[in-house]
Specification:
The protein is of the alpha+beta class. It contains 7 helices and 5 strands. Helix 3 crosses helix 4. This is Histidyl-tRNA synthetase.
Length: 158
């Protein structure tokens, strides 16, 4: 398995897609029930393959990611060859930007000396999707990129 298995909730949401996946392999509903009952390791492998297919599709479409911690915000733009990052650091340890009050403080004070803006970029590896997946596993969330696009006006992005 290249990524991680989808959760039960995610698999439930993708019930129809999973049926189509099994049908593409000529596995009927009755055969699937038999596989789950009598060949649990094969059923596990099928779930893993399906999960990887779904992850590949999702990761291929990712253009922006965000990761927040109490004093840092990391905003990523994923291109074809490189990933660009804008980092916002709050020096005031009394401010937690993961809370509504802290986020409001950042909005009001982002141009002050207590807030540092950085940017960098790096080339993606040959496995772009895995590079993105690593960031997701570290806590990043897929977004539409609104914050990245707003902050890029204030920093020089490579």
């Amino acid at each position: 398995m290249k990524y991680i298995r989808l959760s039960k909730e995610q698999l439930d949401e993708m019930h129809q897609e999973f049926i189509n996946f099994l049908a593409a392999q000529s596995i009927t509903a009755d055969e699937w029930e038999d596989i789950k009952k009598n060949q649990p390791e094969t059923a596990e492998q099928e779930l893993d393959v399906f999960s990887d297919l779904i992850w590949e599709g999702v990761l291929a479409k990712v253009k922006y990611l965000e990761h927040f911690s109490p004093q840092h915000m990391f905003l990523f733009k994923v291109g074809e060859l490189k990933i660009s990052m804008i980092s916002i650091e709050v020096e005031n340890k009394g401010v937690d930007i993961t809370t509504p009050q802290g986020y409001k403080w950042l909005q009001d004070n982002f141009m002050k000396d207590e807030v540092n803006l950085y940017s960098s970029s790096k080339l993606l590896s040959e496995d772009r999707n895995n590079d993105i997946f690593v960031l997701i596993r570290q806590g990043a969330n897929i977004t539409q990129g609104d914050l990245y696009q707003w902050f890029e006006k204030f920093v020089e992005v490579e």
